[in-house]
Write a structure and sequence with these properties.
Order of helices and strands: HHHHEHEEHEHEEHEEEEHEHHE
Structural class: alpha+beta
Largest sheet: 8 strands, mixed
Distance between the termini: 70 Å
Mean pLDDT: 85
Number of strands: 12
Oligomer: single chain
Number of domains: 2
CATH architecture of the largest domain: 2-Layer Sandwich
CATH class of the largest domain: Alpha Beta
Helix content: 25-40%
Low-confidence stretches: none
CATH topology of the largest domain: BirA Bifunctional Protein, domain 2
Length: 357
C-alpha cells in the first residue's frame, strides 16, 4: 500500500491537466483501478486479515480521492487565473468611442417571419410560458401515455407535498397559444404564435430552451392546399428566392389529422445549402389539418369549421439562412459572435424593403 500511495500521489502531483487527472483516477480508484482491485481481494482474506487490510485500503482510497479533488481544484484555479489575466481590462483607460448595438439573429428572424405572415393576413398571438397540463397536452389531444409527457422530455414545476392538482409545465410548444386564442376569439381566425419553448434536450442542434413559431388558420373552406400555398409563399419570401417547392410526407401528430412533415426542396453544393433547387429535401417542421377534438376542446364547432396548423423552429431557420453551425452559440452571450452574426438595429425587416440587409 505504501508503494501504491507513493505511486499515485506522485502521478497526481505531476498531472498538468484535467484529462491526465482523469486517467490517474481511473487507474487508481476506477472500477478496474489498482486500489479497487485490492479492495475486491478483501473477500478472500481471513477475518483477522480484513480487520487490518480493510481500514488501510479505505484510508488509502480516501487519501487518493482527496488528492485528486485538490489537484483538480488547483488546475481549475490556475485556468481561471490565466483567463482573468488574458481578459484583464484596465478600467483607467480612456473611454472608447460609443458603439451601436446589434440585433440577435433570433430576434431578427422572428421579425422577418412575422413580417412575411403579416403580409398574408396573420396576426401575432401570445400566451404564458408556464402552462397547465390541460393547455399544453390535454386540449391538444395528447394522451396521458404519450412520450412527450414523460419527465425526461418535459420540465414540470415543483408541487408541494399533498398538492394533488394537475401539474404545470414549461410549455413544450406554442400550441397552447392557439387553444387560448380560439377560446377567447372563436372562429374564423388566422394567427401565428412565436415564442420560447422548453424541452429536456441539449446537443449541437437541441437546447433546453429554444424558439418556435406556429401558425393556425380556421375557416369554413380551408384545406391542405391552402396550407401548402402558405408554406411555399413563406419559404420563398424568407429565403429570398423566386420559388421553393414544398413536399408533404405523411406523419402523425395527436393535434392534427391528417398530419404531414414539411420538406423544402434544396441542394448541397460544396457544403453550402441552396433552397428552391436541386434534388435534396430539407425537413422544416410539422403541419396538418386541426383535429376535430382540438377544435371542440377550444369551444369551436368542428362540424362547421376546419383549419390547418403548422410549426417551424425559429432557431433552425436562422441557422439555415445565415450559416450558423451550432445552436448552442445562440445562448453563449459572446459579444464577438454577436458582432459577427448580429444585425443593425435600424434595419427593420419588411417585404418591400428587404428582410435582411
Amino acid at each position: 500500500m505504501d508503494d501504491l500511495r507513493a505511486k499515485y500521489i506522485e502521478a497526481i502531483a505531476a498531472a498538468g491537466d484535467e484529462a491526465t487527472i482523469e486517467e490517474v483516477r481511473l487507474a487508481a480508484v476506477g472500477k478496474k483501478g489498482e486500489i479497487s482491485l485490492k479492495m475486491r481481494e478483501l473477500g478472500k482474506m481471513t477475518p483477522e486479515e480484513r480487520q487490518v487490510a480493510g481500514p488501510a485500503l479505505n484510508a488509502l482510497k480516501d487519501e487518493i480521492n482527496a488528492a485528486l479533488a485538490a489537484k483538480k481544484a488547483a488546475l481549475a484555479d490556475a485556468a481561471l487565473d490565466a483567463r482573468l489575466k488574458a481578459e484583464w481590462l484596465d478600467v483607467t483607460l480612456p473611454v472608447r468611442p460609443q458603439r451601436q448595438g446589434s440585433i440577435h439573429p433570433i430576434s431578427q428572424v422572428t421579425e422577418e417571419v412575422t413580417a412575411i405572415f403579416a403580409d398574408m393576413g396573420f396576426s401575432v398571438a401570445e400566451g404564458p410560458q408556464i402552462e397547465s397540463d390541460w393547455y399544453n397536452f390535454d386540449a391538444l389531444n395528447i394522451p396521458g401515455h404519450h412520450p412527450a409527457r414523460a419527465e425526461m422530455d418535459t420540465f414540470y414545476t415543483h408541487r408541494a407535498e399533498g398538492d394533488y392538482r394537475p401539474p404545470h409545465v414549461l410549455r413544450t410548444h406554442t400550441s397552447p397559444v392557439q387553444i387560448r386564442h380560439m377560446e377567447k376569439h372563436g372562429a374564423p381566425c388566422r394567427i401565428i404564435a412565436p415564442g420560447r419553448v422548453y424541452r429536456s434536450d441539449y446537443d449541437q442542434t437541441h437546447t433546453p430552451m429554444f424558439h418556435q413559431i406556429e401558425g393556425l388558420a380556421i375557416d369554413k373552406d380551408i384545406s391542405m392546399a391552402n396550407l401548402k400555398w402558405v408554406l411555399e409563399q413563406f419559404a420563398a419570401a424568407f429565403f429570398e428566392v423566386d420559388e421553393v417547392e414544398v413536399r408533404f410526407r405523411a406523419s402523425h401528430f395527436p393535434f392534427t389529422e391528417p398530419s404531414a412533415e414539411i420538406d423544402f426542396r434544396c441542394s448541397w453544393v460544396d457544403g453550402q445549402l441552396k433552397l428552391g433547387e436541386g434534388d435534396d429535401w430539407l425537413e422544416a417542421g410539422g403541419s396538418g389539418m386541426v383535429h376535430p377534438k382540438v377544435l371542440e376542446n377550444a369551444g369551436i364547432d368542428s362540424t362547421q369549421w376546419q383549419g390547418f396548423a403548422f410549426g417551424l423552429g425559429i432557431d433552425r431557420l436562422a441557422m439555415l439562412k445565415y450559416g450558423i453551425p451550432d445552436l448552442r452559440a445562440f445562448f453563449d452571450a459572446d459579444l464577438r459572435w454577436l458582432r459577427h452574426y448580429g444585425f443593425s438595429a435600424l434595419d427593420v425587416p419588411t417585404l418591400h424593403g428587404g428582410l435582411s440587409r
